[in-house]
Fold HECD4 ligase.
Amino acid sequence: GSFRHFLWQVCKELQSSSLSLLLLCPSSAVNKNKKWGSFGQRYRERPQIHETSQFQILGELEVGAGESHVSPLVCSSSFWKTLVGEPLDPDVDLQEADILTYNYVKKFENISDETELEALCAEIASQHLATESPDCPNKPCCKFTYLSLTGEEVELCPRGRHIPVGWENKDVYAAAIRSLRMRELQTPECMTAVRAGLGSIIPLQLLTTLTPLEMELRTCGLPYINLEFLKAHTMYQVGLMETDQHIEFFWSALEMFTQEELCKFIKFACNQERIPFTCPCKDGGPDTAHVPPYPMKIAPPDGAAGT
């Protein structure tokens, strides 16, 4: 309980702006009031941080703690792909991490004529993201610059601030933006440090046997509560039976809970926000060790033992 609470506090601090270590993925920020995908809001490492020792600690804490406890810190799928050595998908991973940039790039890639390009530049100009063309002062245009994940304007090529986007180079512009964002998602220096931290706890060769999703589930647990699995991993203290009326009422009440309410119950009962996606006892004998919070224990009320 106390150790899980400590991990929860540390991971919340890692996600805070005070450390500037992790960023909320732009797609998650856009949908911060919605459940996005299966895992809700996701974080990833902040690019252009040179203090890699912090990321080594992240590997030791977040990933290493997942060996015996569920980590409450949920990272983007590009994080897990890079961690296990799987290449990123320039469409799927960009869309998941930064839906705004993905849509922006697609608009330029799908333009069919110069009239559409001019209309798009006018739309961007209305959002204060474009400037006037040097050849036509009243005609808005984009330059070869784009905002990084940290909000800084980056030149996509040498002297990019002075190169306007036109019909001839609009595909080059879109490809350069995609390339910038994919480099930021990979952050090789940061991920090398995370792997070093992980390697101080478990052999890195194990990563080759796991898919990114398997690694994420082993570390962060399930994004939903499997009530039947929880029920099968519940022990009743002396004097209690699963068929007792108040026990049946208890499970009936939980069955009416939403997933959000079930997660709150797990936080209240076990002091963790998620439950492991499996338990060693599932494939072992009766003496096989459990992973917290399994087995959940239900005891008689105080002063009513054995009644």
